[in-house]
Amino acid sequence: MKICNNKRKKESCNFWLRLSPIQFAFIILKHNRFIMEADNNTSLYDRLGKLEGITALVDDIIDAHMNNPVVKARFLPLKDDPVHFEEVRLHLITFLASGSGGPEAYTGKDMLTAHRGMNISEAEYMNVVDDILSVLDKHGKDEETKKDILAIAYSLKEQMIRV
Fold this sequence. Notes:
The chain is mostly helical. Helix content is 67%, strand content 0%. It has helices at residues 7-18, 21-38, 44-47, 50-67, 72-75, 82-99, 111-115, 122-138, 143-155. Helix 4 crosses helix 6 and helix 4 (50-67) crosses helix 8 (122-138). The protein starts with 6 loop residues before the first helix and ends in an 8-residue tail after the last helix.
């Protein structure tokens, strides 16, 4: 599922990209209240398949990034350093697990510190988000789960792009 692959969707993307952090937070909070009501209080962590499901998602997301021509140059060097690769992989797993309501504790850097100096472009960011959504599709995740992951990704956008 590419989120900005045609004119109509690009207009929608531009709307989301122009929101201030406060506007976006309000939408997220309102959205999450309805999700919990509609989904019988099933956490995002549970919908992602708990730690086992999240681990499979992260492995496929990393693989997608390594094969994405727009962002692979940032991820392929990890293959040359298996120790660092595993460290990054485990941070991604615990970040997603913790952030989705799981009991795992994320001990990595905050997003701003982790991405400072990388000068990530908007195109790179959008390609990473597209990879994530494609992997969620591959794993058969429902639309509400994809919307929740997209909301998390957008809430972190300002801490990743051009910092």
